[in-house]
């Protein structure tokens, strides 16, 4: 494959596409709401109406408005239908001929859609993720060509560094710096690993990217391989995401078929292959050293760092580990340049961030906004606030490792530093809205229960600490706690935080500390209620 | 006793043909110890769960200590060392589903089926399980029956689904 072949393939595909494209979201969310039946019915109706020359029905990735699925979009007409049923199919087709439709149309000026800035998700909901031709038609694999034939590996690293891209897995470590560290390691066996073990409950950004645009991740990984001198990549993906795994397998197969992965890509001396490793349900495997152990076939237990994986990772070789969304940002940076990317976002947090907006919110779904957008804008303007006239009590980010943003701080911009200041973190991008009916102590208990069952058991502070913290929180929820328990709870939180081995234990107390910081009164109320009931005379039942 | 590693393509003495399919998986991975998790996934697919015999067989084939195979199989949530029911009824207890009341769904199902989460009904028909987020948070709360994800559940709808399973 050379660049002219790539371009002619792109042209062929664009010529093949029919004037009207009816795009059915068949990502996991819509699929479970019955998207497959909708698509089959639409295909039937197109055939019956004799429109096969003018229109085609395609499977696409996430159309973002997940809470309103199944979704169907029509391009270039710019229509988006929501809650589509197979019975709506006929009227969607007749609408193509200018008739009125019975199906529910989404307002194209809905803030949920207009406030988005798609960079990572630019192809999501536009191309069929199972056809490499459609990815190539929108310029796919041209960045890889550009990197391999017009840039040196050092140029690529410099470009990524200049863009200001930071790790999207949660920590926010500068991506360029990480790449430079691995690139500087002596030549030899090196690995690229894509962390797709999206374990945070309430987060589905990586699943959507993998399901909707898998080639973009493969291309990003290949560019990373070239930049650091690696020839082998692994994608570690959760077993809970069967559709993402299937799309990745198809994508790798197609890329190999066209020589876009494998040996001598674009007739350059660069070889790169990618293997998939499927997880088996362990949250701790999102931690990089645990993930390495899991790829090596063992228990996913972390180990102390240093040495960092950049120095000694998979089978003790230098290893670059980045998250799915980080790799998905590489292609646009190479294509449009570091300066363009660095112009988006805030001073220290560049680019956009994808969030999975869920919980007690009117419009749940996937959003991509520039860094620096306020939480209020996301939750109240885009998400439409809390249903049934409720009010926002807090917004949880960062999953079991993060904390909550209280209603008073909703004007905080989302960037790495501002969220840390509030005692929470960016995390991978789960954003869960909680309304005034939510009991925050119960939420803290819920997260601690999660950490307790996910603790790998290697280090004592985490193994025993999470159990004790959970017991203490249960005392609060059962109204049996005293002020001494509150003191004990805080002390134990700091102990677990300061002495645990890996990120899981270090961050496990965060939801407790965060709720203590903003909702301390709820803890005190529970103590009060318990004390009062103690002084009430016991009623003996049945005597 | 299971066969030893010296035999390149051992026939399992029990005559169970599923060991033969497992052999093909092992061969595809060139008996690499690193492939343990992939092999365990396949073994669970073939056998339904990882019985002791299977673990011993895998340990010998991959030249790994049984302790390592057992340790790995018990470490991950998705590997089961006990047989599960014919139908798997999973309630997602991820944060988004939890905030939208999935704990109530679970309580109702426990009541209805007369078992606790993690258990299987006495007739071996239905296993009630919990998930830590299936990534379908946009349509929370979610339950998964035999691999099919169902969104926007209510205490009433889950009881209907459970009844349908019981009638099957």
Question: How would you characterize this protein structure?
Answer:
The complex is a heterodimer of chains A (543) and B (168). Chain A is α/β, with parallel strands linked by helices and 543 residues long. Chain A folds into 4 domains: 17-108, Glutaredoxin; 139-342, 3-Layer(aba) Sandwich (Rossmann fold), CATH 3.40.50; 352-434, Ubiquitin-like (UB roll) (Roll); 440-529, de novo design (two linked rop proteins) (Up-down Bundle). Helices cover 44% and strands 14% of the residues of chain A. Chain A is built from 22 helices and 14 strands. Chain A has helices at 3-16, 28-32, 35-48, 89-96, 111-114, 132-137, 142-150, 153-163, 175-184, 205-212, 214-228, 242-257, 288-295, 324-336, 338-342, 375-382, 416-421, 440-454, 460-477, 483-499, 503-507, 510-535, and strands at 20-25, 55-60, 72-75, 79-82, 104-105, 191-196, 232-237, 273-278, 319-323, 352-359, 365-370, 392-397, 403-406, 430-435. In chain A, helix 12 links the parallel strand 7 and strand 8. The longest helix of chain A is centred in the last third of the chain and has 26 residues, at 510-535. Chain A is globular, with a radius of gyration of 25 Å. The termini of chain A are far apart. Chain B has 168 residues and is of the alpha+beta class. Chain B folds into 2 domains: 5-75, no CATH class; 87-167, Glutaredoxin, CATH 3.40.30. Chain B is built from 7 helices and 4 strands, in the order H-H-H-H-E-H-H-E-E-E-H. Chain B has a 4-stranded mixed sheet, covered by helices on one side. The termini of chain B are far apart. Residues 1-9 of chain B have low confidence and may be disordered.
